[in-house]
Design brief:
- With about 600 residues, the chain is α/β, with parallel strands linked by helices.
- About 35% of the residues lie in helices and about 10% in strands.
- It contains 18 helices and 13 strands.
- The protein has an 8-stranded parallel sheet. It has a 3-stranded antiparallel sheet with strand order 1-12-13. A two-stranded antiparallel ribbon has the order 6-7.
- The chain is globular, with a radius of gyration of 23 Å.
- Bound molecules: flavin mononucleotide and iron/sulfur cluster.
- Flavin mononucleotide binds next to α13.
């Protein structure tokens, strides 16, 4: 009898612990039974090895990819042991990064090393608030509504800690966006957060928002890869009083996002819209779109070449991109995959010598070192990540985002499920993931003998076709020499920043950078690069991470090597995490 009581008491104690701990959303939401997930995960590799899938099979993200994100976000050892389990020779479209015979000599890159954008955003068009983004990796748009308040707060805090920009998504700016991460305000087709009572676009509302919040740039969303050409519907049941206030929509009625904008109707009026936003706010203004028919892009490039109007940045989202909810056929078949779509668009602008004046941003499963590098090889200046940082803050790829019943409290408005997600500890995980990705991309560049991802061109990557033949990315996508690279001056400036930790212009926009009627030589606003950020004033290669065994060197994680449950064999990252906490992260970044 006493044994039964002992078991019962242990179960009650465990349940109490699960409900009060803040490290694992699953356990907080599902005390006791949540442990089965960890037990199954622990024995999963052995089971799956024989009966289910391989390390690279699952989609959208394979087990290897998820494990890499989980380990990186916990500041654990993200190495794998024994060698690759991929078939390098026989896998079609297998990407090979061509290392240099003489890589960059020196210590390992540190996660604390800032890797700023090689271009100054908004500078070529003389925008008053042009700036050099601090980070080549930033958080892609996901709105409050699609994500919970706790998830938005975790991502925003994480962005702040990692020195990244946080795109608001089309759902407007909420108080959860105001925890340290600077914002890109996204304007979607429903103009949430900047619409009048009739649902029309309101420039005055944009001005109010921009004045009151840390907005660094504006992105006009034309489409996203997972559901281009399709509007969205937020059902009345999901519209809480808070969402109604933030989005500027009535309660008790379904809210439709139309499939296209009403504030402009063609490329010409889009450019007028861009210029009026940029003039009134002083901010850089860009567009986000998936790639379908090419007429739009040809006309945009043509009008930018022949008139004095233009966008400051272009975000290309791949058809493989994520969404809160989309019809299957749209997710599966509408719009080009990232590489094909991006290369088509880039070529239109490169042919007209416009590519150097635009900041190109890519998204669509680019949140891993090799996929990010592929983006840079095609001409990306920065990459955006969405679902990968969701994995970092606890997403288990349950694929139930559209149901409102996300078990990890990320893609839901249920207070009960959200309760499990502690924004403070998860923000450190998001930050660890972001800085580790940045560090690993930088290390790949070092292996190629380069100081910054902007110097990666289509010649540095080769794609093997499974038949023992390889073609460079430049060959595959018809790139000419020098395409995918910033101009020589931008390259030499960013190299200077990486080597000396300071901007040679000391934050000022060089006069000959200003174009399109703007005046040059203005100071960048406080908080931009040029060594002002605490992470900025470090040499690119000054990260004292020590030897390869210790990869637990994230900004919020345990000390190098700690938390690495073994020497890096597959499966080593499933151990109990040493949870980082934000206070430690803050301290670490300031030191
Ligand atoms: C839950 C969720 C919500 C999203 N909401 C938006 C949005 O509001 N606006 C937008 O432009 N893209 C949105 N996206 C798309 C992402 O910003 C991103 O472009 C896409 O997921 C590709 O990046 P990834 O492969 O790193 O996830 C959303 C994606 C997800 C997963
Ligand atoms: S529903 Fe599943 S895939 Fe979507 S955020 Fe939650 S855990 Fe991740």
């Amino acid at each position: 009898m006493w044994l039964l009581w002992a078991v019962l008491a242990s179960v009650v104690l465990l349940a109490a612990y699960d409900l009060t701990q803040k490290n694992h959303a699953i356990l907080r939401n599902f005390p006791i039974i949540g442990h089965f997930r960890y037990w199954l995960e622990a024995i999963g590799p052995e089971l799956r090895q024989y009966i289910v899938t391989s390390n690279n099979e699952e989609r959208p993200f394979s087990r290897d990819q998820r494990r890499w994100v989980y380990a990186s976000s916990k500041g654990q050892n993200n190495y794998f042991g024994f060698g690759t389990d991929n078939d390098l020779e026989l896998s079609p479209n297998y990407v090979i990064i061509k290392h240099a015979a003489f890589p960059i000599y020196g210590t390992h890159a540190s996660p604390k090393t800032a890797v700023p954008c090689a271009k100054i955003l908004g500078s070529p068009r003389g925008r008053a608030k042009a700036f050099r983004p601090n980070s080549i990796v930033n958080i892609s748009g996901m709105s409050f509504g699609a994500l919970s308040s706790a998830a938005i707060e975790a991502l925003n805090r994480g962005a702040g800690l990692a020195g990244c920009l946080h795109n608001t998504g089309e759902g407007g700016i909420s108080s959860y966006h105001l925890h340290g991460g600077e914002l890109i305000f996204q304007i979607g087709t429903a103009y949430f957060g900047c619409r009048d009572a009739q649902g029309r676009f309101s420039l005055d509302k944009v001005l109010e928002l921009v004045d009151a919040h840390p907005v660094r740039a504006i992105e006009i969303k034309l489409s996203q890869g997972a559901k281009p050409g399709k509007g969205g519907l937020l059902p009345a049941a999901k519209i809480t009083p808070e969402i109604s206030r933030i989005r500027g929509i009535p309660m008790g009625e379904d809210c439709e996002s139309p499939s296209r904008h009403t504030a402009f109707h063609d490329v010409d009026s889009l450019l007028d819209f861009v210029e009026s936003l940029a003039d009134r706010t002083g901010l850089p203004v860009g567009i986000k779109s998936a790639v379908g028919e090419m007429g739009f892009w040809r006309e945009l490039a043509y009008l930018m070449e022949t008139t004095d109007r233009g966008v400051d940045f272009i975000t290309i989202d791949g058809g493989e991109g994520g969404t809160g909810a989309a019809p299957l056929v749209f997710a599966d078949h509408v719009s080009m995959p990232f590489k094909t779509g991006f290369a088509r668009v880039y070529r239109e602008f490169a042919r007209r010598d416009l590519a150097e004046k635009i900041v190109f941003v890519g998204s669509g499963k680019l949140g891993f070192p090799e996929t990010a590098l592929y983006g840079f090889a095609l001409g990306c200046d920065m990459i955006n990540v969405a679902r990968e940082p969701m994995l970092a803050i606890g997403c288990i790829q349950a694929l139930r985002c559209h149901t409102g019943h996300c078990p990890t409290g990320i893609a839901t408005q249920s207070r009960w499920l959200m309760r499990g997600l502690d924004p403070t500890s998860k923000s450190a995980r998001a930050a660890n993931y972001l800085v580790t990705l940045r560090r690993d991309v930088l290390e790949l560049c070092h292996a190629c003998g380069l100081h910054h991802p902007a110097m990666i061109s289509g010649e540095h990557l080769e794609v093997i076709d499974g038949q023992h033949r390889g073609r460079t990315v430049a060959e595959l996508y018809g790139y000419e020499p020098d395409w995918a690279l910033p101009c020589a001056r931008d390259r030499s400036k960013v190299e200077h920043i990486m080597l000396h930790g300071e901007d040679p212009d000391d934050g000022a926009i060089p006069a000959d950078d200003a174009a399109g009627g703007g005046s040059g030589g203005r100071d960048l606003p406080a908080g931009t690069s040029g060594g002002r950020d605490p992470t900025q004033a470090r040499r690119a290669d000054s990260g004292p991470t020590g030897h390869a065994e210790g990869r637990g060197d994230g900004i919020g994680g345990p000390s190098p090597g700690a938390g690495a449950s073994d020497s890096g064999t597959r499966g080593s990252n499933d151990g109990t995490p040493t949870d980082p906490n934000a206070t430690e992260t803050q301290r670490s970044l300031k030191s």
